[in-house]
Amino acid sequence: MAPRANWKGFLRLSLVTCPVALYPATSDTEKVSFNQINRKTGHRIKYLKVDAETGDEVTSEDIVKGYKVDTDTYIEVTKDELDDIALDSTHTIEIDEFVPKADIDNRYLIRPYYLVPDGKVGHDAYAVIRETIRSMDKVAIGRVVLTNREHIIALEPLESGLMGTLLRYPYEVRSEKEYFDDIQDVKLTKDMLDLAKHIVEKKSGAFEPELFEDHYETALIDLINKKRSGMPITAKVAPKTGGNVINLMDALKKSLASEKEAAPAAKVAKETAKETAKGKRPKKRVEGQREMLLPIAGKGGGTAKTATREATKDTSKKADKPVRAKKAG
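Given the sequence above, the corresponding C-alpha cells read:
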C-alpha cells in the first residue's frame, strides 16, 4: 500500500514553483503496541468524550476549541475563525533564505520528511530547486502548515529528492544555563584523559544504523510469543551493579582492560551482523521487528478474532496454569 502524504501543495523559490507532496521519513507503526483491556472480561477499553461537570457524553458536532483563561472560563474559537487566519504557507512552502547546515543547532531539529514532486508535472522546476540548494552547499529555510500550525522547515538534497526537517521556534528551546550552572569545574589530569581516549578508540567505528537492534522490542516480542505458546514466564534476575566508583583512575584502567578483552569478540559479532544484513533480500520497504511475531493460524480462513481465540485455546492446554482467552477488540 502506497504511503499517504501528510501535506500537498507547492514548493516555491521566487517565481519558480512546482507541486510537491510531503511524506514522513520515519514510522513507529512496526513497533509492538498494546491495547488497554478489562482484566475481568478481556474486552477492550473504550473512551468517551463527556462533559466534565454533568458526566453526559458529548457528540462531535457539539465539541469546539476553547482557550482557558481562568478556572472555569474559556474563550471559544470556531473552525471558521481559524480558517480566516490561515496563512499562505497552508498550501505553499516558500523558501525564505539559505543558511549553512552547520549553523542549525541540533536542539531545533524535530523530525524528517521526504519532499517529492506531486504528479507528472513540475519535475524540471523541482530539479532546479534541488540542484541549486546542492550547488550552494546550504540548507533552504521555508515555512509549512501541518495540523493548522505553521512550522519552519529546512530543506536539503538527499540523493534524487529533498529531505525536509521541521525546526522548533526559539521559544520552544530551553536555555542550557538553567541546567548547567551547577556543574562543578573540575580539573582532569592528562593521564585520565589519555586513558579515556584509549577507551574511545577501542569503541570507535563507522555509523551503521542497519546494525542497531531494539533490545526492548525484541524482549517484548519474545514475551508475547512465549505467552502465546503457553510457555512459563520466569522473572529475570536483576543485574549486579558495580557499586560506587571510588577511584576514577582505577575505573578508567579497568574499563580499558575490559574493552581490550571484549574487542575481538565484538569485532566478530559485528562482521557476522554485516554479513547477515548483506545476505537478506532487499524489500520495497524496511520491515520492523514485528515480523518476528509468531503467525496466528486460524481455521478455514476465519477472522483475526477467531484465530486469536483458537490459538489461545490450543496453547492454554500446554500451559502450567490455565490461560483464559481474551478478545482483542
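The longest strand covers residues 149-158. Try to locate this feature in the C-alpha cell string yourself.
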